[in-house]
Amino acid sequence: MIRVGLTGGIGAGKSTVARTLTERGAYLIDADVIAREVVAPGSDGLARLVDAFGADILLPDGALDRAALAAKAFVDDEQRTKLNGITHPLVGARAAELLDAAPDDAIVLQDIPLLVENRTAPFFHLVVIVHADEDVRLARLTGQRGMPEDDARARIRAQASVEDRRAVADVWLDNSGTPDDLAALAAALWDERLVPYERGVRTRVCAPQPGAEVAYREEWPVDATRLTNRLRVLGGDKIADIKHVGRTAEVGSASVDVIELDVALADGASAADLVDPLSDGGFPVLSPGVHANADPGRAVTITLI
User: Fold this and answer.
1) What are the b/e assignments for 154-166, b being 16+ CB within 10 Å?
2) By the number of CB atoms within 10 A of the CB, which of 47, 174, 194, 296 ranks highest?
3) What is the pTM of this model?
4) How confident is the model at residue 199 (pLDDT cuts 50, 70, 90)?
């Protein structure tokens, strides 16, 4: 099983990507669907929202008036934090139940609008960001969804910046074209990366390593930081330190496109302690004391020292 986090700004086009991947076999866990479920009429979640924001967030039939809630919850950071403190734990618990029910060979697609804001990116094997420029998103929200422009701008500005999204993106899908263009990108991602990645994790086989040198790439230190954060989650207290080493760590230097990381083990920990956590997390054993990525889209070698 691999877990793929899917996110992007409101109006960016996540639904097209989710639909395409689900049609190809992804096991979808949709945070928006869950968010509606946990505040359905009669639920504890809805009762807590009423206590926090007032009874005027309800429709005449007792259901949640989402527009009324948004008008109160997205006015400032304090109100948004209050909303998230109620809904996020409920959504997380339900998502965990669905994850436990996924098949062992599943490619689990978790559609999470606030994945970046919640700082959960390191907990996924792969993070997919769907991007569209702000003016494009604004036009979609006001035109296709009928959202008032001020509300649309407030929702956009309350979310993560482009820079924050790029920092956690393993995959960046640009939705500046047509829906068919985006669907084609998602289909290629499934065929060329996700399917072999899941197979590599399940069978504990590393993806092929590139051999040719390429010119220096500015994304190398960003990739190294993202991988380091993921390794720290997987290794926990068995890891003392992680350093980006080798030619990709030298600004301006040409290199084989492989991120090299030295992982210092904590006192009392051994390389054997990390075999299962790293392998299950997408980094099978390449050779004794060395792990590499099962993801064919990003080569990395991890040396345990």
Assistant:
1) ebbebbbeeeebb
2) 194
3) 0.87
4) very high
